[in-house]
Amino acid sequence: MNRAAAAIVASSGAPRSETSRGPAPSLARNAFWSLAGNGAYAAGQWSAIVLLARFGGSAEVGRYALGVALTAPIVLCANCALRTVQATDVDERFSFADYLAFRLSSLVVAALVMVAAAAGFADGADAGVVLVVGLGKLIESYGDLLHGALWRCERLDIVGKSQLWRGTGALAAAALGAAYGATALAVAALTALAAAATLLAFDLPALAGTLPDGRRGLASLLRPRWHRGQLSALARQTVPLGVTVLSGSLILNVPRYAVEQRLGLEALGVFAALAYFSMIGNLPATSLAQAVLPRWSRAVARGDRQAFYRGVARFSAGAAAAGVAGTLLAALVGPQLLAVLYGPEYARRADVFFVLMASVGCGMVVCGLDHALYAARRFRVQLPLNGAVLVLTAAAASAWTATHGLLGAAYAALASMAAAVVLRVGLLWIEPLPAAASSAAEGGRP
Fold first, then answer.
1. What would the DSSP string read from start to end of 287-301?
2. Which residues fall within 8 angstroms of residue 283, CB to CB, at 6 or more apart?
3. CB under 8 Å to 86, separation ≥6 — which residues?
4. Which residues contact 356 (CB under 8 A, 6 or more apart)?
5. DSSP state at residue 180
6. Distance of alpha carbon 399 from the chain centroid
7. Is residue 81 a contact partner of residue 99, using CB atoms and an 8 Å limit?
8. In 229-344, at which residue ranges do the beta strands (DSSP E only) sit?
9. Quick one: which of 55, 69, 222, 428 could link to 253 by a disulfide (CB 3.0–4.6 Å)?
10. 232-269 pLDDT, tens per residue?
């Protein structure tokens, strides 16, 4: 059995004696598929904003963006970065059945929280968008767990193809939604339907194709194990990480909350449309970080500090250079680009776009540094880091949006990403990478 199939079978608790189905791809191929998949997925999500801006108006963009801004932190917190924990679980401390049981439990809690959040809206249209957007996020969360099993054995080619299908489905959903009313609710409903279709038509059959006994193995793999000891140990390890991810999502969304509160739904639509360009910068950073994470994790496990820090330094330098290039591009052709994609209303805020692109450059560096901390399994230490940045972001967004409008919110986003870079670099510099045994102890061996 090859390494890829063996990792999946091992994570499921299934026998290891069967033959394998295909080799693990190279790092370059994994990076390619990760970039292609994430790119297609981001394009599909972005298409909803572009088509709503063109055919529905800034108020519908704002309503859709508000639904995403409210549900994304809830689902991300419920996810507890379980896919990352799976990818770095090189010692196989938990089976896939343990991860599945934990994910199903957390999704029930997330659904209840989203219903409570929607109940707080006086406008039924806003509440409906929140619930339907949240449903799509819950469906994607289930597929995310399947991706985690594939990520750990470096089968990002399958994950990338799944994201490709998700993005294509989201693009088709946005186009149909724009054709039939161009409302946020229609786009959200069709996007959730496309996510469900991808899960059933691609994710589950593709995972079955990696298992020695196909669909029979998949049925065994998808049977949760409700073991109190394992679930408690997994909760101790992942819940702090979930809170960390929640705080990270809030850092990105707090400026949007401030815009909606102080400037209204239409202003939020403009700000969200400009901010969606961050996907362009995050794509290569996230894709490459996902590709190298398992290798960084193995470097940590064997105590190879030189290889780990060399890889992180190269990643950070490349991300910083790409961020500078993107910011310069925004300064040169920002108004023209916004006019073509969104229209003249958005092109008039090229100043906001420039500052947001600068924040994207810092965010690309943060992405690599976060994955470095994941590889070292420093899950708990990220919570105080994000907490400090969140307090800074909330204070800056509240004050600067009140005095400088959308530009103030953009400066708050830039300040938050710059602070995140400084704090993470400081942590990696002050506290050297622990030895393999220490790293495992911090991870919380059950």
1. HHHHHHHHHHHHHHH
2. 35, 38, 39, 42
3. 11, 96, 99, 145, 148, 149, 151, 152
4. 274, 275, 277, 278, 410, 413, 414
5. T
6. 28
7. no
8. none
9. 69
10. 988 888 888 788 888 888 898 899 999 988 998 889 98
